[in-house]
Every structure is written in structure tokens, then in C-alpha cells.
Specification:
Distance between the termini: 52 Å
CATH topology of the largest domain: Rossmann fold
CATH superfamily of the largest domain: P-loop containing nucleotide triphosphate hydrolases
Strand order of the largest sheet: 4-3-5-2-6-7-1-8
Radius of gyration: 31 Å
Structural class: alpha/beta
Largest sheet: 8 strands, mixed
Number of helices: 32
Strand content: 5-15%
CATH class of the largest domain: Alpha Beta
Length: about 775
């Protein structure tokens, strides 16, 4: 008899097999779900777990069980998150539950109670601890990796794999992931690198999600019975096309879409607020708020507005009064009091934190957000609205993926508050309900590794393990695991093709002679005839060559075969299969040991530039080991070249900014003259030297330095006000704060890596870690 998870748990509970799980589950005012119970059982059994479940399903309860185990049994637990906002949120939650003395926080710029039993941190902090052999890791029993699907992130994903590969085998890993279609494959890899790991997948949303399309002013279900497209919606779409004369396929004429303010009013009337409207543009998020204000929308009552004002006053008390106008404070506060807000990376962090706090309290009812809100921050809504199903990816407009759609709409439905969640797609002339239905019902969004060795990673691994073991450890990455699995499929296809090819070769055999050789001549003639239309060779030369081959064919022993055409066709099919086999073998070669091959090339460059000598780490290599980031080698080479030695604190900040900043547009950068200009010229030459070495080895090049933030960072380091820097600039306050925080992070790394620069670095930090920047560190 097979028991359900719930029945199995009841049986275990009655026998007292899992006393720690039982005690933990009884601390909640609700019954734990079967997947949560199964995961807790696995942890109590000493196994690692991978839990893949929808947004809002309660995955973090499993992470909290690891915290509970440590609180009651000793040892340490690290709770890692991908972003600082999540770390702060979890820190606040656990402090409230277990007390501040037992909980610590490490996010790079904030350090609170770092030797506590439970430390919440960003993943980069833990990775750096592993490489530096930090004593803080001693007695570590559990590591919770929240949002572990982040390892697919192109820029930061490698950090998750570094931790999973190199953390001590004695540590139990609790991996918490959004629903992915290849959870079993990911779990299989975890088994190989972490030992016994239980994979627990739940596709059950705690709050059911209903999908709708807002067709003009009509809210229509996307699906009808049996999850099939609603025939009423397809009829309305068809009728809208019929209204157009002539070539109606190219001229849809549906109902006029509602304005954003009208959508909010419609949702309010339907009882579907609070709602998050995802708009894939910061400017349009802000414009939506302004439109709602202009329409006079007010979603709050007198008591709610009073609470909102008190939260704003509490959170904004450290802002300089002279900066309020440039920050857009008054419009922002007015919108909040009406229950409306934007949420995107261009906002001051304190503004975002305030919006999140008020939304969680149900005081803000309509938020217009970019997709960054879907990254795990606890902000569920009753309804999620999607304006479009495409977004700008930096190069062009691309359709959002099924995984992104699921992540965005996963915000709909507040557990314990709503009986259902709602996703609303706004119909427009570019929308096709069939495509929308496919997107909404697709369950195939695999987790793909983005892991690749960097210069810093490679030098740290060589330092820790030596080249041979370092190379072996990289071969155990998920990236190589997935490449190897793909190779298995390719090899299977090769074997299948080889059997078919050999069979065809046998069929083409003839007592007259070698038909493979004969058909090769026929193929050569075909190729020459095709190429003659594009070739720069003279026509008579090609015709002479064709004539020569034809002459050889006539003299070939197979030419007189009575079954010549049939034998030739069979031989040609065999040769086509051979060419396909050659192509597949090339693909296998390109995937085999791909991670280790990259490491080998990086090692050649590290050796060429003097950072290692065989396995011996040079002094410069020890310095590089302390510099993390996309431009690690460029920064290390700049230190070696003495680029920063004679710079003033403000000049240093401006020059360093070129190594962290990425411009959002291609406008010419404004650069301070004098020492800054000279230093940037040297950095550009250094980059050119690195780029040339990478190109010679066919290595993906490091990103180039970007001078787009030099002017703004120099002015801030020189004591100018935020207002004077942002006035007349396209730079948003959120981008400004984030870039300055990245400069601070990098300067702190340099202080450790280059002791000779400590004095000027400390002076630079003192000049820039002030005002809105210092407040951002404390608020986020």
C-alpha cells in the first residue's frame, strides 16, 4: 500500500520517528504542507534537500527548520540570499522570532553580530569566506541557499556553484528553488557534489491562480473548461478582425485599451486590489503613478493615510531637506498617501523599502513595478497585471519566457488572506490569446548553469588546491554536468547514424568498384556548380575543373555499372550521414571539458601576466585573489602598473568607477581632466593588452572599462550635493546610489588587496560614504 505524504507523516508522527520535525511543526498555527514535512524529515535524517515549489508555497519554512535545529542543538546555520533586501528582510523576521542575540547579518556593507549562531548573508559573502578559510565557517552545520535558481544568472550565477562545489561535505545544504522543469537533473548533480540529497518537488500553489484577459473594459477568463482557451475570448478576437475591411489580417481593430488609471479603477470596482502591475520600463512605472494622481485616484481612507504618513516620517528622517526635490519626495509621498507607488531599481533604496513595508501592511494598494520585484521580495498581491508579454533585453524586444511569466504571476494570491490569486493580461492589437494561453500553461522552464571560471576564481582555486585538483573541481560543476548529459545524447545520435551509414555503405557495394569514391566525384561537381554563382573564380576555370572530374568519372570502373544511379544515390546518402556524424563529433568536442578548457586558458594568461608560476602563487596573485568582480584582472593590472598611486581621493573614486559601471545608453562620457583622464588612458591600454591576450586564446573577453559614471562620482567625492549632480542628468537616484555602493565595495576590496593604497582609500571612503549613500547602507 502506498501512503500519501500526509498519511506517511501521520504514521511517522504516531511512532515518534521525527520528534524534531513534530515539535517544529507544532510551533505554527497551521498544518504544514506534505512537501514541507517531507523536507524536514530529510533534514532530520541528515540529508541535504532540494525543494522546488511555486512562489508563496512556503519553501522558507524548511530553511527555518534548519535554523530551529541549530538553536536547539548547537552549531551554526548560514542563511544565504541573492540580494541584500532579502537578507535584511530575513534578518528582521528571524530576530523577531529568535531574538537579536542569536541572529547576525553580513551583506558586504553591513556587519551585525557576525559570529552569531545564525547569520544571514548574501551568497558572495559566503563564497569569500570559503576562499579565505574564514574561522567563521567553523562549526557550520547547515547552509540555506534561498532562491538557488539564481545560479542561472549570467553575471552572478557562478557564486552559487562555487559554494555548492567547495563547501565542506559535512555541511547539510538546503536548496530552495522556484519551480523548474529539471529539478531532478539539478538534484542528481547535487547528489554527485554534495552527497545524499533528497529532491522534493511541489507544483501545488497554496492559493489557486486564475488567469484573465482585460479586453477593453471586459475582464474575461483566459481558460474555459479543461484548461482550454476560453471560446468567448477567441470569438471576440475574431470579431475584432472582421470589423476591418480589406487585408484584415494585418489590421486588427479591437477595443481601445484602458488607461493605466482606468485599469486600477476597474480592479478596485472588481475587488481585485491590492495589485502589482508589471511594466518593463522604469520611466513608464513613474508615468503610471503620475497618471493615477492626475486622475484623482485615492485608494486609502483617513486612518490609513495617517499610518502612511507616520511610516514615511520614520523612514525618511535622515534625508537632507535640500535633496527632497531632486529625489521627487513630495510627489512620491503624495502618491503613497493615496495608496499608489512605483517600485524599480531607479528609486532611492529607502523609497523602495518604504513601499514594500506599506504594501505588506495593505496600505499601498497599487504598485507599478519592473520585473526586479519578482526576485523573491515578500510582496504578494491579490492580483498581478501584465501590460505586455515582451521586454527590452538591452538589444531588442523579446518575449518573456514561461519561467518569467510564472515568476511574475506567482506574486498573485496572499496565503491566509486571499482564497484565490488573479493574473490579468491587458489585451492589445499585438496580443494573440493562443500564444498567451501557451505561455500561461507551459511547465517547461529548465534551470541552466551559467558557470564559468574567472581570473579571481581560478587564482583562489589554484591557491587552495593546486592546478590539478582545481581543474577536477571545476569539472564537477553543474555546467559541465549538463554539457556531459548533452554529450550523451549526441553520442547516442552518432551511434544511430553510424549504424545507418554502415548499412547504406553495404547497400552501395558493387563488384564493379568503389561507389563511395564515385559518388564523391558527383558531389564535387554539384558543389562546384553551386559555388560558381558566388565564387570569384573565373567561370572557365570552374568549367575546366568540372570537365576534369567528369572525365575521371567516365574512366571510373563504376561508371559502367547497370545499377549505377541507385548505387550512387545510396552512397551519397551514406556520405550525407557521415557529414552529419562529423558535425555531431565537432559539437561533442566543443562541449567536452569545456569548463576545464576555459580554466586552462585562464591559467595561461595568469602565467603570462606573472600571477602564477606553475602552481606557485606570486605576490600579485595573492592580491588578485582578493579582488572580486567582472574586471578583476584589469583592476589587478592597474594596481601593478601604479595607476592609482598618485591619485587624490576624488580622482581615485572617478577612476575606479570605470571598473564597475555599465552605461544604460551610448552617450559620450564626460570625464574630469588632468590626472583622471591620464589614469583612464592607461587603464584603456591595459585593457587592450588583456583583450589581445584573450583573443589569441579564443577566450571570451572581459568587459571593457566604462567612463559613464566618472563625472558624477568625482563630483560626489568632491563634496557636491546630490541635487547638483542629478539636476539635468539622465542618472536616476537609484542608479547613483547603487553605483556608489559598488565603488565602496570595490574600494574595501582594494584596501585589503593593496595595503600601499590604504590611506587614500580610507580618505576616499570618508568622502563618499555620506548623506544618502550612508543612509542607503543602513536602510537596505
Amino acid at each position: 500500500m502506498t501512503l500519501s505524504p500526509a498519511e506517511s507523516y501521520a504514521l511517522h508522527k504516531s511512532k515518534g520517528r521525527y520528534p524534531k520535525t513534530q515539535k517544529f511543526s507544532e510551533s505554527f498555527p497551521f498544518e504544514l504542507d506534505p512537501f514541507q514535512i517531507d523536507a524536514c524529515h530529510a533534514l532530520e535524517n541528515g540529508k541535504g534537500v532540494l525543494v522546488a515549489a511555486p512562489t508563496g508555497a512556503g519553501k522558507t519554512i524548511i530553511g527555518e527548520f534548519a535554523v530551529d535545529l541549530v538553536i536547539n542543538s548547537g552549531g551554526k546555520c548560514f542563511y544565504t540570499t541573492p540580494i541584500k533586501a532579502l537578507s535584511n528582510q530575513k534578518f528582521t523576521e528571524l530576530c523577531a522570532k529568535y531574538g537579536e542575540s542569536k541572529i547576525g547579518l553580513l551583506t558586504g556593507d553591513i556587519s551585525i553580530n557576525s559570529e552569531a549562531q545564525i547569520v544571514i548573508m548574501t551568497t558572495e559573502v559566503l563564497r569569500n569566506m570559503i576562499y579565505s578559510n574564514s574561522k567563521t565557517i567553523d562549526d557550520l552545520k547547515y547552509v540555506v541557499m534561498d532562491e538557488v535558481h539564481y545560479l542561472a544568472d549570467k553575471f552572478r550565477g557562478a557564486v552559487w556553484e562555487e559554494i555548492l562545489i567547495h563547501l565542506s561535505d559535512a555541511v547539510q545544504i538546503i536548496s530552495l528553488s522556484a519551480t523548474v522543469s529539471n529539478a531532478e537533473e539539478f538534484g542528481e548533480w547535487l547528489q554527485t557534489v554534495r552527497g545524499e540529497t533528497e529532491v522534493i518537488v511541489s507544483e501545488i500553489r497554496p492559493v489557486p491562480l486564475y488567469q484573465h484577459v482585460l479586453f477593453g473594459n471586459r475582464l474575461i477568463d483566459l481558460f474555459g473548461e479543461n484548461q482550454k482557451l476560453n471560446p468567448e475570448l477567441t470569438r471576440l478576437e475574431r470579431d475584432s478582425y472582421r470589423q476591418v475591411r480589406g487585408n484584415w489580417r494585418d489590421k486588427p481593430k479591437g477595443p481601445k485599451p484602458l488607461m493605466r488609471s482606468e485599469v486600477i479603477e476597474k480592479l478596485d470596482r472588481e475587488g481585485l486590489l491590492p495589485a502589482i502591475t508589471f511594466i518593463f520600463s522604469r520611466n513608464n512605472c513613474d508615468a503610471a503613478v503620475r497618471q493615477c494622481l492626475a486622475a484623482g485616484i485615492k485608494l486609502t481612507n483617513t486612518d490609513e493615510r495617517k499610518i502612511i504618513r507616520s511610516v514615511i516620517a520614520k523612514n525618511m528622517k535622515n534625508l537632507a531637506e535640500e535633496d527632497l526635490v531632486v529625489l521627487g519626495y513630495y510627489e512620491w509621498a503624495d502618491a503613497l498617501e493615496r495608496g499608489i507607488a512605483a517600485h524599480h531599481a531607479g528609486l532611492l533604496p529607502a523609497f523602495k523599502v518604504t513601499v514594500e513595508e506599506l504594501f505588506q501592511q495593505g496600505l499601498v494598494k497599487a504598485v507599478f513595478a519592473t520585473e526586479t520585484l519578482a526576485l523573491g521580495i515578500n510582496m504578494p498581491a491579490r492580483t498581478v497585471v501584465l501590460e505586455k508579454l515582451s521586454k527590452w533585453n538591452g538589444e531588442g524586444h523579446v518575449a518573456i519566457s514561461p519561467g518569467e511569466y510564472t515568476q511574475l504571476t506567482g506574486r498573485a494570491g496572499r496565503r491566509g488572506i486571499d482564497i484565490e490569486g488573479n493574473a490579468v493580461i491587458l489585451w492589445n492589437n499585438d496580443l494573440d490569446s493562443t500564444s498567451v494561453g501557451g505561455l500561461a500553461s507551459t511547465r517547461t522552464y529548465p534551470l541552466k548553469s551559467s558557470f564559468k571560471p574567472t581570473y579571481n576564481m581560478s587564482i583562489n582555486l589554484i591557491s587552495q588546491f593546486g592546478s590539478t585538483r582545481a581543474r577536477t573541481s571545476l569539472e564537477s560543476s553543474l555546467a559541465q554536468f549538463q554539457a556531459d548529459k548533452a554529450v550523451v545524447g549526441l553520442a547516442k545520435q552518432i551511434r544511430k547514424n553510424e549504424i545507418a551509414r554502415d548499412d547504406l555503405f553495404n547497400q552501395s557495394k558493387c563488384d564493379q568498384g568503389d561507389f563511395v569514391e564515385y559518388s564523391s566525384m558527383r558531389a564535387a561537381i554539384k558543389k562546384l556548380e553551386t559555388d560558381s554563382k558566388r565564387s570569384k573564380r573565373k567561370r572557365h576555370e570552374i568549367e575546366e575543373e568540372i570537365g576534369s572530374i567528369r572525365k575521371r568519372m567516365k574512366n571510373h570502373s563504376c561508371h559502367g555499372c547497370p545499377d549505377r544511379e541507385n548505387h550512387s544515390r545510396i552512397a551519397e546518402r551514406a556520405q550525407r550521414l557521415q557529414r552529419e556524424i562529423d558535425g555531431l563529433e565537432e559539437r561533442i568536442n566543443s562541449r567536452t571539458n569545456v569548463i576545464a578548457k576555459r580554466f586552462d586558458r585562464i591559467k595561461i594568461i595568469l602565467d603570462k601576466f606573472g600571477y602564477i608560476n606553475n602552481d606557485a602563487i606570486a605576490q600579485s596573485g595573492k592580491m588578485l585573489a582578493k579582488i572580486y568582480g567582472e574586471t578583476d584582472l584589469l583592476i589587478a593590472e592597474s594596481i601593478q602598473a601604479g595607476v592609482f598611486n598618485q591619485l587624490s581621493p576624488a580622482d581615485l573614486v572617478a577612476v575606479i568607477s570605470s571598473c564597475i559601471y555599465e552605461s544604460r545608453n551610448e552617450e559620450a562620457a564626460k570625464v574630469p581632466r588632468g590626472e583622471v583622464q591620464n589614469a583612464l588612458a592607461v587603464i584603456s591600454k591595459i585593457y587592450g593588452k588583456i583583450h589581445e591576450a584573450e583573443s589569441d586564446l579564443n577566450l571570451e573577453p572581459m568587459r571593457s572599462p566604462d567612463f559613464g559614471f566618472c563625472w558624477a562620482s568625482h563630483k560626489w567625492a568632491s563634496g557636491h550635493s546630490l541635487t547638483s549632480i542629478l539636476k539635468g542628468s539622465d542618472l536616476t537616484v537609484g542608479d547613483f546610489v547603487r553605483s556608489m555602493k559598488q565603488i565602496i565595495d570595490l574600494l574595501r576590496q582594494l584596501r585589503s588587496a593593496a595595503p600601499d593604497l590604504q590611506v587614500v582609500i580610507d580618505q576616499a571612503l570618508g568622502k563618499i560614504d555620506r548623506g544618502v549613500i550612508a543612509y542607503a547602507g543602513a536602510a537596505v
